[in-house]
Amino acid sequence: MSTMRDVARVAGVSAKTVSRVMNNDRYVSDDVRARVLQAVDELQYVPNVMARSFRSGQDAAIGVAVPAVTGFFGYVVEAVERIARDRGVAMYLTCLGEDPDGEQAAVEALLARNVVGLLLAPVADDQSYLKPWRERTSMVFLDRRPRKLSAAYVVHDDNGGTRLAITHLLDHGHRRIAFAGDSITVPTTARRRTTYELTLFDGGVGMDPFLVSWGAHRVPVVPRLLALPDPPTAIFSANPSCSMPIVRQLHAAGRSEIVVLGFGDFPMADALTPPVSVVEQDPTELGNQAAQRLFRRIDEPDKRLPRQVVLPVTLVRRGCCQRARMGPAA
């Protein structure tokens, strides 16, 4: 069976150029593309992911398991699907929901389809069940690091983004900063909660446990916070699913002077009054990076590759972080 190096030799180009042509890179010239494709045809070259599937009896397909297929993870899945389609690889998708007890069964059902690779955003706190599968299936975790399993992952900088947000609020005079998250069992939320406390401490502010709320994506948390003897002047939200209901609750209570700063952008955040500043993530880039790394591991299973990739985030200031006020607005 011909290899990529054979194609490169016949076409008179580098193996990297062959890879770019096979991945439909638009920056390859027409002449080079034609030479490579002619060599591919002459040698009857099959890309590695397909060749591996022929040798192992596995499908030329990857599996993707994420908590949801809308919002943030919807963009991630779209990016992965585009890269897989460009490579002529099918994609099986499963939605894990929020049930950690159901993760193993759902993921193993996906792996039972003989996929050559797996992209996983876990919801459980233990992925050791995947150890028997690693020998035959390449794996990359996305958005969330694996637990009790050594594996490659691509994540956003949760710690750096949270530090940016809390420091920004402290610099604007806020000292009563609440934290609102979905669940401490979600790894990204747990990291943001820890960094929230550490950044307050570094700023000379002790954390008040009464300012921490969980389940903010499902139950109203603003009424309890406003009822405190010393309510917050700002709320840091761990993700968009918490940010949107918090903003609605504050507007309903007539307390729009309380600042909301969220991790992750959400629709209409820039059009609200006041607009909501956010720590901006790029779910499309997350999906691109995770898929590219998965296919590289499939193509080069014996090569030592970087295990972790941490993507940068940015603080988008939209003018909502006014100076802290003492007491409710008049």
From TrEMBL:
The keyword Metal-binding does not apply. It comes from the Bacteria. GO terms for molecular function: DNA-binding transcription factor activity; transcription cis-regulatory region binding. Residues 2-56 form the HTH lacI-type domain. SUPFAM superfamilies: lambda repressor-like DNA-binding domains (SSF47413), Periplasmic binding protein-like I (SSF53822). This is Transcriptional regulator, LacI family. CDD domains: HTH_LacI (cd01392), PBP1_LacI_sugar_binding-like (cd06267). The keyword Transcription regulation applies. Keywords: DNA-binding, Transcription, Transcription regulation.
